[in-house]
Amino acid sequence: MLKSYTDLTSRIRGCGRRSLSVGAAHDRDLLESVAQASEIAGFHPILFGDAKKIEVILKDIGYTGDCNIVDEKDDLTSLAASVKCVHDGDASVLMKGQVNTSDFMRAVLDKTNGLRSGSLLSHLAAFEVGGFDRLLFVTDGGINIAPNLSEKKEILINTLGALRCLGYDNPKVAVLTANEQVNPKAPATVDAAEIVNMWREGAFGSDCVVEGPMALDVALSSEAAAHKGIESRIAGATDLFLVSNIEVGNVLGKSMANIAHAKMAGVVLGATAPIVLSSRAENAASKLNSIILACGCVA
């Protein structure tokens, strides 16, 4: 179990060499996060973009580590080259640089040099929240708007694979709903019960615990479970919250970040390599956490 991003960083250092490919990398905040992550976690950046701008920024921020810079001034061409670098196995993680998300995803899904794996793409967020003894993971609050039961299964498979890469040998999963009663008028509760049935039948492996439908208070508190008369193996110890739709995941994540002042990171799963899909408006600290998380999700 990871208690903090400090724990995660320590784990990355012990997992061997990682390499990060970034297209359109000539941006100060982005390069600050890449440089910091490289220095503290020991991975190798491969930077595609305007070489002169990249070199000036790296010198200005005092980065003296090892990196490769590939000169390509056209943003879309540099983006395509960064994706191909991962496709060809020369880098283990892809990061979005100074390009539009639509252009980025088009390159990721390119049939020739993209990172298609045949799996559904999904988003995993990790939060370090004051007062909790562990990182809290949420999926999917970033990509899939209203996943059906089959898609929720794929999202959970993606995420459990990432958590195993992060060192979790028995992740505890709560399938979140408004309450614990299965009600046909609340489809999320029906899906939750079906996902738990899938788990019992071995769909997600034997090295995890999946419970639901489950309200957030029970997932976070064994006292709440006892008060409601609910027997649970994960109440108060939940690692992963599988949400019913993007609104639930988005609100839950932003509540932790903006009300509880949690440190946050996100990674896209389901491609042939983890993807850092951070906003161009995010600060360097947020991008740093996402890079470290993505590097930890490398199989």
Core attributes:
alpha/beta, 6-stranded mixed β-sheet, 5-stranded parallel β-sheet, 11 helices, elongated
Number of helices: 11
Q: Count the beta strands.
A: 11
Shape: elongated
Distance between the termini: 17 Å
Mean pLDDT across the residues is 93
Sequence of strands across the biggest β-sheet: 8-7-9-6-5-10
Main beta sheet: 6 strands, mixed
Task: Explain what this protein looks like in three dimensions.
- The chain is an alpha/beta fold and 299 residues long.
- The protein has helices at 5-13, 28-41, 51-61, 75-87, 101-108, 149-165, 187-200, 216-220, 222-227, 246-258, 284-296; strands at residues 19-22, 44-49, 68-71, 93-95, 122-128, 136-139, 172-176, 209-214, 240-242, 263-269, 275-276.
- Strands 8-7-9-6-5-10 form a 6-stranded mixed beta sheet, with helices on both faces.
- The two termini are 17 Å apart.
- The model has no long low-confidence stretch (mean pLDDT 93).
